[in-house]
C-alpha cells in the first residue's frame, strides 16, 4: 500500500452528519491523513466531533509492533475516528545515546496504523512540540506521587517528559478516549493521574500487555536485542509468573515474593536486575501485604545488554 498524505478537508464528511453511522468514514478515503502541526491536528479532530463522531487517540513513539496494533484496533472498535500520534519525545530520554538509538520506522508505521483502522496520524517535528528546543521548556508537568519510585528513580526526569508531552497531545486532541498499553504500567498510572488532576478532556483506557509466544512483552526496544540477549530476557516474564503464582497460592509477604523473583533473575547472568517489586496497583507504593485487600501489581526492570526492559503483571489475572 502506498500511503498518501490526504488533504485536511477529507476528514470532514461530505454528507450531513446525520447520514453517518457509527464507525463510518468519509466515502472513498482509504489512506491515513498525516498532520504535522498542533493547530491542524486540533482543527481536524474538532471537525470530527462536530460531525457527530467520536475520537480515539493512541499516543506512540513509533516503531510500531503488534502491541501498538492492538491499541489501534481496540480504539477503532470503540471510536468512530482514530488518531495515532508518532513522536519520539526527546524530553523523556535521559541519555542522548538512548534517544539516538530509538528505532524510527515511519513508513512501516503508517502501514500498521492504516491497516489497523486509524485515519489520522499526527507526526510533529520536535520544534513543533517544543518551540524552545534544544533549550529546556519553560513549563513542564510533574506527577511525583506516582513517578518518584521505580522507573522514576532509575530514570530521573523521564516521567516529567512523559507527563508534559501527554498534556500537549491530549490538550490538542480535545475530547477523546486515549489508549495506552499496560506494559508500561507506571507510565499508565502517571497518565491517569495527570489527566485526572488537570481535568484533561480524555478518558484513559488501559489495554492488556501483548506478548510474544514465548512470553516476552512486546517492546520497540526488543529489536536491539541479539538472539542470545532475547533468550536471556525471557527470565523477566518467568520471574513475574513465579511471583504471581506465589501470590495466588496464598503467600502474603511481599518481601518473600520479591526475593523469589530476584533469585530467579540472578540465575541469568546476562540480565542485570534493577528492581522486582510488589506494589499497590493504584498508587505504586510498596505493598504491605499480598492478601486481597488492595489490587496488586508485580513490576520488574532490568538491563539486558544495552537495552533496558520493563514488564509487569496483575497476579490475579496474569496480565
Describe this structure in words.
The chain has 319 residues and is of the alpha/beta class. It has two domains: 8-207, Rossmann fold, CATH 3.40.50.620; 220-313, Pantoate-beta-alanine ligase, C-terminal domain (Pantoate--beta-alanine Ligase, Chain: A,domain 2, 2-Layer Sandwich), CATH 3.30.1300. The protein has helices at residues 38-50, 66-78, 96-101, 106-116, 126-129, 144-147, 151-154, 158-173, 185-197, 227-248, 254-266; strands at 33-35, 55-60, 81-86, 120-122, 176-181, 202-207, 271-280, 296-304, 307-313. Helix 8 (158-173) packs across helix 9 (185-197) and helix 10 (227-248) runs antiparallel to helix 11 (254-266). The radius of gyration is 20 Å and the shape is globular. The chain starts with 32 loop residues before the first strand and ends in a 6-residue tail after the last strand. The model is unreliable at 1-10 and 12-30 (pLDDT under 50).
CATH class of the largest domain: Alpha Beta
Structural class: alpha/beta
- Biggest sheet strand order reads 1-4-3-2-5-6
CATH superfamily of the largest domain: HUPs
Gyration radius, in Å: 20 Å
CATH overall fold name of the largest domain: Rossmann fold
Mean model confidence by pLDDT: 90
Are there runs of 5+ residues with pLDDT below 50, and where? 1-10, 12-30
Strand content: 15-25%
Series of secondary-structure elements, N-terminal to C-terminal: EHEHEHHEHHHHEHEHHEEE
Q: What's the end-to-end separation, in Å?
A: 34 Å
What is the name of the CATH architecture of the largest domain? 3-Layer(aba) Sandwich
Number of E strands: 9
The largest pleated sheet is described as: 6 strands, parallel
What is the tally of helical segments? 11
The share of residues in helices is 25-40%
Query: Any idea how many domains?
Result: 2
Overall body shape: globular
Amino acid at each position: 500500500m502506498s500511503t498518501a498524505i490526504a488533504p485536511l478537508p477529507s476528514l470532514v464528511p461530505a454528507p450531513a452528519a446525520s447520514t453517518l453511522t457509527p464507525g463510518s468514514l468519509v466515502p472513498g478515503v482509504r489512506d491515513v491523513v498525516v498532520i504535522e502541526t498542533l493547530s491542524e491536528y486540533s482543527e481536524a479532530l474538532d471537525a470530527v466531533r462536530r460531525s457527530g463522531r467520536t475520537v480515539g487517540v493512541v499516543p506512540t513513539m513509533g516503531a510500531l509492533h503488534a502491541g501498538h496494533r492492538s491499541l489501534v484496533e481496540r480504539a477503532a472498535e470503540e471510536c468512530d475516528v482514530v488518531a495515532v500520534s508518532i513522536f519520539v519525545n526527546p524530553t523523556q530520554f535521559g541519555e542522548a545515546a538512548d534517544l539516538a538509538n530509538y528505532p524510527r520506522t515511519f513508513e512501516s508505521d503508517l502501514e500498521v496504523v492504516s491497516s489497523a483502522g486509524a485515519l489520522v496520524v499526527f507526526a510533529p517535528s520536535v520544534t513543533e512540540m517544543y518551540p524552545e528546543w534544544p533549550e529546556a521548556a519553560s513549563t513542564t508537568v510533574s506527577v511525583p506521587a506516582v513517578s518518584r519510585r521505580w522507573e522514576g528513580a532509575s530514570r530521573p526526569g523521564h516521567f516529567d517528559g512523559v507527563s508534559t508531552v501527554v498534556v500537549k497531545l491530549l490538550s490538542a486532541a480535545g475530547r477523546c478516549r486515549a489508549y495506552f498499553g499496560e506494559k508500561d504500567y507506571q507510565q499508565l498510572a502517571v497518565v491517569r493521574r495527570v489527566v485526572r488532576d488537570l481535568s484533561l478532556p480524555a478518558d484513559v483506557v488501559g489495554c492488556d500487555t501483548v506478548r510474544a509466544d514465548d512470553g516476552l512483552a512486546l517492546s520497540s526496544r526488543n529489536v536491539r536485542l541479539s538472539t542470545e540477549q532475547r533468550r536471556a530476557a525471557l527470565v523477566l516474564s518467568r520471574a513475574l509468573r513465579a511471583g504471581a503464582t506465589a501470590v495466588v497460592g496464598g503467600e502474603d509477604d511481599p518481601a518473600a515474593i520479591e526475593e523469589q523473583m530476584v533469585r530467579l533473575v540472578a540465575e541469568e547472568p546476562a540480565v542485570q536486575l534493577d528492581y522486582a517489586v510488589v506494589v499497590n496497583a493504584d498508587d505504586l507504593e510498596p505493598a504491605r501485604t499480598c492478601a486481597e485487600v488492595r489490587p496488586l501489581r508485580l513490576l520488574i526492570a532490568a538491563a539486558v545488554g544495552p537495552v533496558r526492559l520493563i514488564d509487569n503483571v496483575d497476579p490475579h489475572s496474569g496480565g
